[in-house]
């Protein structure tokens, strides 16, 4: 009887060892797979964050450029030149009538189309 139980116990031990060994290998590979997936997910998240921040900064830069272009276009260059010209004419007595011309020869200041303007400021 002793000889009958020995092969069964040996087979049981071999079966248990095979299960534990294969389970251990599968567990190792699944843990390794999970850690690799975690690293890849973190890299993907960082890449998406970089992409979103780049898109946001480009959109913000474009918005700022549009706004500053609007400010530049809204500034009255003729008014600034006119004020500077009037101040210069007031400083010098030999300037009788100051004027500003366009490239084509039209008067910008003073406007001689019948609109009265104050030429000199006190």
TrEMBL record:
The keyword Membrane applies. Keywords: Membrane, Transmembrane, Transmembrane helix. The chain crosses the membrane at residues 12-31. This is Uncharacterized protein.
């Amino acid at each position: 009887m002793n000889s009958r139980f020995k092969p069964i116990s040996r087979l049981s031990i071999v079966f248990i060892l095979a299960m534990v060994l294969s389970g251990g290998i599968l567990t190792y590979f699944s843990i390794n797979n999970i850690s690799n997936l975690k690293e890849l997910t973190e890299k993907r998240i960082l890449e998406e964050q970089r992409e979103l921040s780049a898109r946001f900064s480009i959109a913000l830069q474009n918005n700022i450029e549009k706004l500053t272009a609007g400010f530049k276009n809204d500034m009255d260059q003729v008014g600034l030149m006119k004020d500077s010209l009037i101040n210069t004419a007031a400083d010098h007595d030999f300037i009788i009538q100051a004027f500003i011309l366009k490239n084509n020869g039209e008067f910008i200041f003073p406007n001689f189309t019948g609109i009265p303007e104050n030429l000199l400021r006190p």
